[in-house]
Amino acid sequence: MHSLARLLLALMMVGMATIGQAAPLLHGVVEVAGKLVPLPPGRWLPVGEAIERHGEAVFATRALARIEAGAVEAVAIIRTNLSPRPPAFTGPSDCARGDIHLAHVAYDTDSDGLCLFINHVVLSEDVAGPPVWLAARETLAALGAVVTDTWLAVGIRARTSRHAIDVRYYFAPPDFRSALPARGWSDNRWSPARAQADADRRASIRRLGVWALWAREAVELGLRGEIPEEALPPAPWDGPDIAARLVALRVGKLDRLLAAGQIGEGEYRRQRRQLEEVGIDPEASALPLWQRGIWKWLSHGVASAAESLGVAYLVIGSLWPTLGFGALLEGAAPVGSYLQRLLWSDTIAAEAVSPTAPRDFAEIGLKN
What is the pLDDT of residues 228-241, one digit of tens each? Predict the structure, then answer.
């Protein structure tokens, strides 16, 4: 009986080794559908692949895991478009939240965008997660790897007029090996309120914020097809001060620009001074996304109306006729736009079937 048990155990170990050897370990960068994605230091094992379809939009999805001492220390879930970039593929709603550790929009236009967020995610039986995560869980279970129930997630989404990529880096918290089981999302030890009340956890979140800034730049470069080795982010918890390393990297870029004559001394000193004053946390968006949208619409409308009235006044030369003419234009504009859409019905039909995608993808656990 004991010999049979030993034989079964040996066969199980061989099976686990085969799983681990089936896919080569990755270092530094992984390519997904022609885009390059930066990976923190360590050996990353591919643990899941899937094709996600949302209407006419098709996304390639991959999951990677970094396993150390029998436990999963990090997971990366990568999504990128296979079909033409959906017009609705804007920043995720998490980039506009005010109740998580960080929500930061670098830029957001009709043609391109870049944003990031940091949130804690708690695994739950009530949340199955996306298909690629289900595949990853099966692989990790077969390997016997320990999976923590609380993750610190860094989400980065970058897009151009043709391509888009959404990367979620999930890091096991520094205390995950000794922590008690999670108690939900809002009362979790890594919730914003509780993390800010603890010096060690607060420092970890601030450090992760700097890491997210570093990774954000690397993801943006990878979307465009090239990530220099010096742009690869370090591990968030290890090594010397990460903020000082990031500042040194950017100062080095400034030095090269100055030496090449691409910037002048004044601009160099201005940017150098900004870098020397950099804080740990990237600047968060001051207003929620819907408020920023309203403000943008109002300010654009006021500027446009002022420009039209100014030109009309120069032509007419009288205040009241100018105001009447301006009111007529403001009323005629939406009517003209509506009539144009009726005349161009083919365009409307094409828009109705153009690829679209949800703003948010399924999360691996509770995110609020």
Answer: 888 899 999 876 67
The residue whose two tokens read 């997210």 is 212
Task: List, for residues 149-173, the tens digit of each pLDDT value.
Answer: 999 999 999 998 888 999 999 999 9
**What phi and psi values does residue 108 have, to the nearest 5 degrees?**
-155, 105
The pLDDT of residue 66: 97
pTM of the model: 0.71
Q: Which tens digit of pLDDT belongs to each residue from 242-290?
A: 778 788 888 888 898 889 998 888 888 888 887 776 544 444 444 444 4
Q: What distance in Å separates the CA atoms of residue 155 and residue 169, rounded to the nearest whole number?
A: 6
Q: Give 75's contacts (C-beta < 8 A, 6+ positions apart).
A: 47, 63, 64, 65, 66, 136, 151, 169, 170, 364
For tokens 């017009």, the residue is 87
Q: Is 189 exposed, middle or buried (0-12, 13-18, 19+ CB in 10 A)?
A: middle
